[in-house]
Design goal:
It holds the Pfam family GntP_permease. This is Gluconate transporter. Keywords: Cell membrane, Membrane, Transmembrane, Transmembrane helix, Transport. The chain has 20 helices and no strands. It has 437 residues and is mostly helical. α9 crosses α20. The two termini are 42 Å apart.
């Protein structure tokens, strides 16, 4: 009965948004209330779950998305994105732009959390799209595939790092194995699959695209790169320092503070306000007006992400993730395939890759205690499963849909299919490595 309620809730969500044309935030609230009551949550507990889901989800992404929108706005309006795009095209040409952006996403995705990398790269993607009249999804998907794979597979990202600790895996080996699996997953889901999406019509958010500026009005090339990519540089320095210094170092609390994505973005916005704003002759008031406009551009996106968080939390409060995991545990499947499957099913039902990964780990821990399965590969199998079939209940789905201004159908065709390819190729890579080792 629990699974039937969940299926009906997901179908209702899809129907309200796709066919009923109901605003996604309202659809999430309606379905969350209906599903919670059907799953037996008391009204008080149901409302508490909705408020918690809204608060927890927005609390983790609101600062990053808003500050990212501000940074993106000034990067676009100052001409820094135009300068970076011109540098990339002059070096690699439009023929290899997918591969160029994929490599950029791969490098940036190692230190940066997904949401930070996404909002940081959007102005660059859109600048290339508008300047060279290229299809937005075709250009942007390879970079976002790289960011997604890094987030799901590799430390220091939250879920993989937590799984390494739970399974007592080796951080370095997990990272190396993860790189071997990540490369083919990114290539197949990014440039290769992206070539089939050239026909998707996308008009990205206008707030992150500025009219082309004359070359003499552009900021310098070094200024453009450093100001735009400062979050990457700051986080790389902080993470490197944390790796070199002992945990008991007096600097450890300061480094932990600086490693927080919100702090990284705040520092970056502060620097860009000067380097791409006042240093180029703009007044502080003009820069702040741009920042205000950027917040309006992402307000609806934040509402939708909050709604997805409320739906997820209602399902978590109902205990449905444990029911799913228990139902799959006695299937007799090989441990690596079982770990992937449990994470995948929970991901499809709840939408959260992190919850899917951590729940699957809790189920697989007793299995691993009596199995010779390589713990490093189990981390990667669960990480791959946690990326499968991102759809209406996943905040990442809505980030992509709303920023690229796509229909639900085209988002499923592009984003959802890309995430599924990453997940399946990741599983295949884990099984091949298990066979070789």
């Amino acid at each position: 009965m629990t699974f039937l309620i969940l299926l009906l809730a997901v179908l209702a969500l899809i129907g309200l948004i796709s066919w009923g044309k109901v605003h996604a935030f309202l659809a999430f609230l309606l379905v969350s209330i209906g599903a919670g009551l059907a799953l037996g949550l008391a009204p008080a507990k149901l409302l508490a779950a909705i408020y918690q889901g809204l608060g927890d989800t927005l609390g983790s992404v609101l600062v990053v998305i808003v500050l990212g929108a501000m940074l993106g706005k000034i990067v676009a309006e100052s001409g820094a994105a135009q300068q970076i795009a011109a540098a990339l095209i002059s070096t690699f040409g439009t023929r290899y732009i997918q591969w160029t952006l994929m490599v950029a996403g791969f490098i940036i995705g190692i230190p940066l959390f997904y949401n930070v990398g996404f909002v940081l790269m959007i102005p660059l993607i859109f600048s290339v799209v508008y300047k060279y009249r290229l299809p937005a999804v075709y250009v942007g998907l390879p970079m976002l595939a790289a960011l997604s794979v890094m987030h799901g597979f590799l430390p220091p990202h939250p879920a993989p790092t937590a799984l390494v600790a739970q399974f007592h895996a080796d951080l370095g080996l997990t990272f190396c194995y993860g790189l071997l699996i990540a490369l083919p997953a990114i290539v197949l889901a990014g440039p290769v699959y992206g070539r089939t999406l050239r026909g998707i019509v996308s008009v990205p958010l206008s707030g992150f695209v500025a009219p082309p500026l004359p070359e003499h009005a552009l900021p310098g090339r070094w200024n453009s790169f450093l100001s735009s990519l400062l979050p990457v540089l700051v986080l790389a320095v902080v993470l490197g320092s944390q790796a070199l210094l002992p945990p008991t170092s007096p600097l450890a609390p300061t480094l932990a503070f600086l490693a927080e994505p919100g702090i990284v973005m705040l520092l970056s916005v502060g620097v860009a306000t000067v380097s791409l704003g006042t240093a180029l002759g703009k007044s502080v008031a003009v820069v702040m007006d741009s920042y205000s406009a950027s917040v309006k551009d992402v307000a609806l996106i934040l509402l939708i992400i909050g709604g997805a968080g409320a739906f997820k939390q209602v399902l978590v409060a109902s205990g449905i993730s444990n029911d799913i995991a228990t139902g799959l545990q006695n299937t007799g499947l090989p441990p690596l395939l079982l770990g992937w499957l449990i994470a995948a099913v929970i991901r499809v039902c709840l939408g959260s890759a992190t919850i899917a990964g951590l729940t699957a780990a809790g189920v697989m821990l007793p299995v691993m205690a009596h199995s010779p399965t390589n713990p490093n590969l189990m981390v990667l199998a669960i990480g791959a499963g946690s990326l499968l079939l991102s759809h209406f209940n996943d905040a990442g789905f809505w980030l992509f849909k709303e920023y690229f201004n796509l229909s639900a159908r085209d988002t499923l065709r592009s984003w959802t299919a890309m995430e599924t390819i990453v997940s399946v190729v990741g599983l295949a890579g884990v099984l091949v490595l298990d066979w070789l080792l």
